[in-house]
Design brief:
Layout: E1 2-6, H1 9-26, E2 31-34, H2 38-54, E3 62-65, E4 67-69, H3 80-87, E5 99-100, H4 109-122, E6 128-131, E7 153-156, H5 159-169, E8 178-181, H6 184-188, E9 192-197, H7 203-211, E10 229-234, H8 244-253, H9 258-261
Bound molecules: fructose -6-phosphate.
Length: 266
């Protein structure tokens, strides 16, 4: 796991967008795992800008989102399908047939989860998985005690997650109680993981996920076992990390990050 600290949330999101853009330019057939939520909005804004102003091409790219609420149709403005259309898909040249999310309206949940896993397999697996982190430490909707080898399935949301989503639904009582989510095991099979967290309210859970023990109580901590995981934070989200100087030194000295250091991300 490597940790990159950026001064502001905007800097952190911009860096994440440029990592995605780099991978997409290197491999136009990229299979990209996507996340939703407030943190990602700035990432998608920058990707849209890169498409419009610098010709970033999504035409051959395939995407798989982490999750979708159970019971929300794709045209419901609170569904993640709608979120993706609003923030990214409608503004770039991606083929809608290449964009995948679990079907929140499926009646046979198990069949839908098997279908989604099979689709990912058929695409050759996920090359780059974008991740946020919930205040309860989830990646996707892998709430505390999710098996670290879990596959795509339906999960009941914790009160913390319901609270986190309440503003989007006009009150906690309207938040769906369940979501279909890629499992921790599904996420761990991505060739590269890229986690973005910003804001002081994520500082405590980031410290537990990055520097604490690996535990199903904080499913993001499983990423410590991933062979290629980059965690990008703003200063506020990284505030409680104990090894900040070391992380900064690595970013300032590792050849892998040289392009970024010399292109406005110093
Ligand atoms: C969303 C997802 C979640 C969010 C997390 C952070 O697809 O998988 O894990 O990334 O809940 O959400 P925000 O960014 O709204 O704090």
């Amino acid at each position: 796991m490597e940790v990159i600290l950026r001064p502001t949330a905007e800097d952190a999101a911009r860096l994440v967008a440029h990592v995605i853009a780099h991978e997409l330019r290197a491999n136009p057939h990229l299979v990209l795992g996507l996340a939703t939520g407030r943190t990602m909005e700035q990432v998608y804004r920058e990707l849209v800008r890169l498409h419009r102003e610098e010709g970033l091409d999504f035409s051959l790219c395939r995407t798989f989102n982490l999750d979708e609420f159970v019971g929300l149709p794709p045209d419901d403005p609170r569904s993640y399908r709608h979120y993706m259309r609003r923030h990214l898909f409608a503004h770039v040249n991606i083929d809608p047939r290449n964009t995948h999310l679990p079907d929140g309206m499926a009646t046979d949940w198990e069949a839908e989860c098997r279908r989604y896993e099979a689709l990912i397999r058929r695409a050759g697996g996920i090359d780059l998985q974008l991740l946020g982190i919930g205040r309860a430490g989830h990646i996707g909707f892998n709430e505390p005690l999710s098996a670290l080898q879990s596959r795509t399935r339906v999960k009941a949301l914790t009160p913390v997650t319901i609270e986190q989503n309440a503003p989007l639904f006009g009150g906690a009582e309207h938040v769906p109680r369940r979501a279909i989510t890629m499992g921790v095991g599904t996420i761990m099979e991505a060739r590269r993981c890229l986690l973005l967290a910003t804001g002081a309210e994520k500082a405590e859970i980031i410290a537990r996920a990055v520097e604490g023990p690996i535990t199903s109580m904080v499913t993001a901590s499983a990423l410590q076992l991933h062979p290629r995981c980059t965690v990008v934070l703003d200063e506020a989200a990284g505030a409680l990390l104990s090894q900040k100087d070391y992380y900064r030194w690595l970013y300032e000295n590792e050849p892998e990050w040289e392009w970024y250091r010399t292109h406005g991300f110093a």
